[in-house]
Amino acid sequence: MKNYLNDIFGINVKIEEWDGKKKLPLYLRNKREYYVAYMENMQCILMKNNSDNFIISRFEKEMYEIEKISGMSVVLWLDAVSTYQRNALIKNRIPFIVPNSQIYVPELGMCLRELCAGKREKVEHLSAIAQYLLLYFIYKEKIEEVSQAELMEHLDISAMNVSRAVLELQELGLLETRKEGTRKLVKAVAIGKELYQLSKEFLQSPVQKIIYVASMHYDMGLPYAGETALAKRSMLNFPKCTVFAMDKKKSKDIPKEYLIDPKLVTDNDYVEVELWKYNPITFAKDGVVDIVSLVESLKNIEDERVEMQIKEVVEEYKW
Is residue 282 part of a domain? Predict the structure, then answer.
């Protein structure tokens, strides 16, 4: 396995037995071997399956549990795989490696390509996942270390996405990391307004798309966003159309017949829903989206009223 990964990624890979196995419940230890693969400043768990059973749903559940316990992403290690099994794994986005034969670890490959690419272009904007993780530290009450496992649980994102976001923020000097055994601990260089000021040049709007939903069908319990959220935080008049925010991943739950085109209706009996690149509910307060994301979502609006109220809201906000 080590030589195979060395050849694939062109870097020095170190593989050791994972001493965290003893922390796992019995059903996760039975007919399983666990290793830690160290690649540059990244690491992941290799779960070797020594059972004849091949059940996708079981693999998904087991790997999720191990990610929560270890704080690292998990890659399935198989000695052989049939065409059917390979297709099933890829369809369900389960990363796996068959030494000297096949490898499917898309997120890991992306991270390693970034690490090994040499001189990188200057970062203009944070990725959405890095910005989402940054918000966690901006809104913390004090500077303290947290494990990647804690970040996974609080933000409900995968170990691989946490690793990518931490690396991105670390390269900008916004986070510091250290290892404690097999755990990776993360700490921000500041919190609150200070961290916001350090990072704001890299922030982007969380809004990916805007949809409109007929008011008679709206009952989703979403936080207020856009000019509606700003009006709730300032003296700005409320817009004619109420604005909410939703994680883009949840938009598929809205029946298509509930969607409307404002250009084709004569009244304002509908709401505007911003589809965000990360979950707006996580940092919402009192039913309103968080202040940093709100400011970023409105910064390209050329309206003096909005610009003035944004400035006042940021100055008066109690970080």
Answer: yes
